[in-house]
Amino acid sequence: MYERILVPLDGSRNAEVALKEAIDLAQKFSSELFITSIINEQQFVAYGYGMAAPTNFYSEMRERSQRILDEAETKIKDKGIKATTILTNGNPKKAIALELPEEYKIDLTVMGKSGVDALSRIMLGSTTSYVVQHSTTKVLVVNDEDDDDK
Questions:
Q1: Residue environment code for 80-119, b if the CB has 16+ CB neighbours within 10 A, otherwise e
Q2: For a Cys-Cys bond, which of 44, 79, 87, 118 suits 53, CB 3.0-4.6 Å?
Q3: Which domain of life is it from (predicted)?
Q4: Is residue 106 part of a domain?
Q5: 102 in helix, strand or coil?
Q6: Looking at the 3D structure of the chain, how many domains does it have?
Q7: Which pTM does this prediction carry?
Q8: Residue 77 structural domain
C-alpha cells in the first residue's frame, strides 16, 4: 500500500512519535522510509542574520540535523527496514509538501502535529498545516501521546 514513506524530523517529541508510527507502517507494508531533516533557511532571517548567517550558526544547525538523522537511521535499521536519509537546506514547508515527494516518489508523509521551534511557528506559520493543505501525497499527522491528556 505504502512503498515509500517520508518522515520529516526536527528533534521534537512529536517527530519522534511520528517516526515510531512510520516504522510500524513500514514493517506492516514492507515500505522504505525516507527520513529528512531540513535546515530552514528562513531561520537565518528569523534570528536576525539575514542570508549572511555566521558560519558556526549554520554548522551547528547542520550538525544537529545530522545527529537527528543518524539516531533515526539507527532505530530504523535495527528493525530491518530500508532507510534513506535526506539532509537538505530550504523551506521545510515546500520541501515536505512538494519537492521531496516528487523527487523520491513518496506515497505517504508521516509527521508530528507540531515541531520543536515555537518562534518559527509563530513567525512562519505551521509547517504541518501547510503540508496538509498543499501536499502531493497522503499525509498522516501523528499526535504526541501526551497531547491526549490536554
A1: ebebebbeeeebbbebbbbbbbeeeebbbbbbbbbbebee
A2: 44
A3: Bacteria
A4: yes
A5: helix
A6: 1
A7: 0.84
A8: 4-142
Burial class (CB in 10 A: 0-12, 13-18, 19+), 141: middle
Cα end-to-end span (Å), the chain: 33
Q: CA-CA distance, 106 to 137, in Å (whole number)?
A: 7
**Nearest partner of 39 among 61, 57, 56, judged by Cα:** 61
Helices and strands per DSSP (H, E), number in the chain: 7, 5
- Taking a C-beta distance cutoff of 8 angstroms, is the pair 125, 91 a contact? no
Contacting residues for 29 by C-beta, under 8 A, at least 6 apart? 1, 2, 3
Residue 21: is its pLDDT beyond 70? Answer: yes
pLDDT digits (tens, 9 = 90+) for 53-79: 556 777 888 999 999 999 999 999 999
